[in-house]
């Protein structure tokens, strides 16, 4: 089944792969950009994914403004709302992330329902289904994280509040439009462009020898290609209507990620750190580790999580996390321009 699909925030890491997979599947694809000057770079970025961009149309629309959204939505069958502010946020002004994420989501949903879109699939985050760290509960789709929980930084609070706002809006809005949300873990995998590469910067840091010694931090990992596939499955599957789906493969400690890189990449991973820092030392140093500072509450924790619902209902079958880490590193090493520093926002 094909149709016209709008993907918000086309230059993003996840959005780029969603666009590529939709084009590969024969869909007419639209995407939004904040700046028309980025269109050429977007089209060049999806070329390595082996797709033709002739069926891709670009619309100018910003999550912080109403202009452009009605035109982008008109005639669309589906929307993948992937765009969201990135980065750790200004700790003195958390609304710098929270307000654009929440209000931008509502702006997209208002335009989608007005246009009679069949379904909106929204990218949230696995953190939105995470209980308090000492609750001894497994993260699943029945759980709603508390945005006031101190384990969450501004980025994760923005995801929690934006998803809550989306479900509240849909509950109060009549019409044919349906909502589904996807809750990914830390998204790694091949990088199409360096802009908004998000959590990929963790791999980039390891390849560059940063941090020089490894903290006891770990992530539930999902491959960006598998995440794009899950969005598209959720877009049309009747059983996905009104559902949340966690998207994750395996959990890996940074130490295991580093070992995997060294074992598989040989001399290309010569800078990857070996030493592991004791937690007590890491707690002293994290305030000075910009890339990992927001993850401090997760130090030494392997919180349980399940993606069984997505596997059972939508046939989600993600790659092993070790494969994702290697493919991510290879894409960075093969295109050195992708190794520039960018903010980190692992889910």
User: Strands of the largest sheet, in order across it?
Assistant: 3-2-1-4-5-6-9
User: What CATH first level of the domain at 4-190 and 220-252 and 303-320 would be assigned?
Assistant: Alpha Beta
Report the mean per-residue pLDDT as an integer.
90
| Basic shape | globular
Care to describe what's here?
- The protein is α/β, with parallel strands linked by helices and 347 residues long.
- It has a domain at 4-190 and 220-252 and 303-320: NAD(P)-binding Rossmann-like Domain (Rossmann fold, 3-Layer(aba) Sandwich), CATH 3.40.50.
- Helix content is 36%, strand content 14%.
- The chain contains eleven helices and ten strands.
- The strands form two sheets. It has a seven-stranded parallel sheet with strand order 3-2-1-4-5-6-9, sandwiched between helices. The chain has a three-stranded mixed sheet with strand order 7-8-10.
- Strand 7, helix 6 and strand 8 form a beta-alpha-beta unit.
- Helix 1 packs across helix 7 and helix 8 packs across helix 11.
- The longest helix has 21 residues, at 95-115.
- The radius of gyration is 19 Å and the shape is globular.
